[in-house]
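Why do we care about 3D structure at all? Because function follows from shape, and shape follows, mostly, from sequence. That is the central idea of this module. The next example makes it concrete: a single protein chain, its amino acid sequence, and then its structure expressed as tokens.
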Amino acid sequence: MDCGGEEQARQNGHAGDGGDPAEWKKVAELRAVVEAQDPAAKEEDDFMLRRFLRARDHNISKASAMFLKYLSWKRGAKPRCSITEAEVRGELVQDKLYIQGFDNTGRPMIYLFGNRHFAAKRDLEEFKRYVIYILDNTCTKLPAGQEKFASVVDLKGWGYANCDIRAKLAALEIMQNYYPERLGRVFLIHVPYVFMAAWKMVYPFIDDNTKKKFVFVADKDLDGTLRDAIDLSQLPEQYGGKLRLEGYKSSSTTL
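And the structure:
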């Protein structure tokens, strides 16, 4: 599995998870194809296979190619099945990202502060490991029956020093190709005009399904948008909520 959070759903079988028999039949067909080509596919559950199937519009040929590529990538990117804290400490200490709280649909929330990332100070290989580390840790917080997470990307104070096209493309590649159907929605807030130039460079590399999940929020709509999506108890204090974000420096167990 790419990450946890689905044990209860597995115990209950496929029934009641929102899928349909025809889709699960296609999942079984996909499993037969990928297991015949890579025995490691047997270690992955049906829910993961379904996400890859959905990411390729239920085309078994395309989904199998995508999934086999994932298995090959996983052996190189996560040879010990996970990324350790020590491998990404240089990124963690920057306190630019927090995995805390849930939205109103039960999706774990990621809060990212773009002005704390500096292209000149990052190592690209460590950054890639960091993306994997964050995605895996986010998925461990998924409640039963939930497969997606949501995010708020705060770009207040973002400037040229924070612009890092290579890192953005690397993160997109990992999320789209190896963690498909995990992203639910991203709210981009406090977006400065200068950011749009970088966005135009990255946008062509975002697949059509993922593009629909990015929501640019105008400052005048910020309070209403966030409060409609996230309960005050789960919304950070800086946005008028009651949740205190706790970074790596203040807690070794909370990002």
